[in-house]
Amino acid sequence: MLKVLYEDDEIIVVVKPAGVESQAAKRFAPDMVSEVKKHLVINKSCTPGKEPYVGVIHRLDKPVCGVMVYAKTKNAAASLSKQVAEGKMHKKYLAVLCGKPVDNNGTYVDYLKQDKKNNCSRIVDKSDPESKRAELEYKVLDCIQTEEKDPQYLSLVEIKLLTGRHHQIRVQFSGHGTPLYGDGKYGNNEKAVRKSLALCACHLRFKHPATGR
């Protein structure tokens, strides 16, 4: 069942489960666009006999869960996409880190290079012509000492994403010595690898494309 947080004639805001693609998948696995379309047809929120329009505005990595907005009209899609391009769509995340950041509040500014062939990114020098600036702010909400020696600590952090780079949160925290719990791609500890990634998009703020609210 699709979990809908808000819906009107212009937009639909839903919760993406971990393990589901944000947009149409190449294989036969479920994806959010298909699930939203199915919801619109079942609830008669589209023209009968016509495939509903679902505009993809932003994306979450497959192992990440959280709140997403999709457009139900092309005008709404254009308005929301413009907000994303201008940095006016604000996103916050909750994550569990392996270890403790040096400071309880901080900002990470790095330069990332995407490797599309291997579907990963890495921190590189600013002089790299293919690098892109990546910035985020974080705040440690809680920290516990585990019974295991590695990782010895687990930290719950709130993250404000200021840029939207490929695998940005995962790459930056791993690069600063505190990989996300459950991250098999960027984690540096085999014991930290779990079936799910401890990262959730918990907050999304934007202006409604029709009302401006």
Secondary-structure blueprint of this entry?
Blueprint: E1 3-7, E2 11-16, H1 32-42, E3 55-56, E4 65-71, H2 74-85, E5 90-98, E6 105-115, E7 120-123, E8 132-145, E9 153-161, H3 168-175, E10 199-205
Throw out a few tags for this protein:
alpha+beta, 213 residues
Number of helices: 3
Task: Return the average pLDDT rounded to an integer.
Answer: 90
Helix content: 10-25%
Uncertain runs are: none
The total strand number stands at 10
Gyration radius, to the nearest Å? 18 Å
* Span between termini: 28 Å
Q: Give the assembly state of these chains.
A: single chain
How is the main sheet built?
10 strands, mixed
What does the overall shape look like? Answer: globular
Listing every helix as H and every strand as E from the N terminus to the C terminus, the arrangement reads EEHEEHEEEEEHE
Structural class: alpha+beta
3D structure, described in words:
The protein has helices at residues 32-42, 74-85, 168-175, and strands at residues 3-7, 11-16, 55-56, 65-71, 90-98, 105-115, 120-123, 132-145, 153-161, 199-205. The longest helix has 12 residues, at 74-85. Helices cover 15% and strands 35% of the residues. With 213 residues, the chain is an alpha+beta fold. A hairpin with a 3-residue loop joins strand 1 (3-7) and strand 2. Strands 1, 2, 3, 4, 5, 6, 7, 8, 9 and 10 form a ten-stranded mixed β-sheet that branches. It has three helices and ten strands. The two termini are 28 Å apart.
